[in-house]
């Protein structure tokens, strides 16, 4: 059976909105602190996500290192030109995906 597991709403009066949803839809209100340990303990971070993070972390660090090295050796204009070129290439690839999928 499909059900709503999470609902996030921005409001001026959160208590009133929470009371409405609890009463109208028989929902349960739960409040969690935004701490990464609580997400892990509560099971909101799944093992496959932790595995993917551990697997990709060396590549992220290598990218940060390479980007920092390039930034230090290139002029500001060349860095901005490289970023612009990356944005153009990634935007073009997204457009190609959209038009080829349709």
Report what the structure shows.
The chain is mainly alpha-helical. The chain has a domain at 9-45. Helix content is 71%, strand content 0%. The chain contains 4 helices and no strands. The protein has helices at residues 14-25, 36-42, 47-73, 76-101. The model has no long low-confidence stretch (mean pLDDT 82).
Average pLDDT over all residues: 82
Structure summary, number of beta strands = 0
Low-confidence runs: none
The computed structural class is mainly alpha
Number of helices: 4
| Residue share in β-strands | under 5%
Largest sheet: none
**Percent helix:** over 70%
- Termini separation comes to 32 Å
- Rg from C-alpha positions? 22 Å
- Assign an overall shape: elongated
Order of helices and strands: HHHH
Strands, helices and their partners?
Elements: H1 14-25, H2 36-42, H3 47-73, H4 76-101
Short description:
With 102 residues, the protein is mostly helical.
Descriptive labels:
mainly alpha
């Amino acid at each position: 059976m499909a059900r709503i597991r999470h609902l996030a709403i921005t409001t001026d009066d959160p208590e009133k909105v929470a009371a409405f949803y609890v009463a109208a839809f028989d929902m349960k209100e739960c409040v969690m602190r935004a701490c990464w340990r609580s997400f892990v303990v509560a099971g909101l971070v799944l093992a496959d996500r932790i595995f993917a993070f551990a697997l990709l972390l060396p590549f992220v660090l290598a990218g940060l290192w390479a980007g920092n090295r390039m930034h230090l050796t290139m002029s500001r204009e060349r860095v901005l030109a490289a970023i612009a070129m990356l944005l153009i290439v990634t935007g073009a690839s997204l457009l190609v995906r959209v038009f080829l999928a349709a």
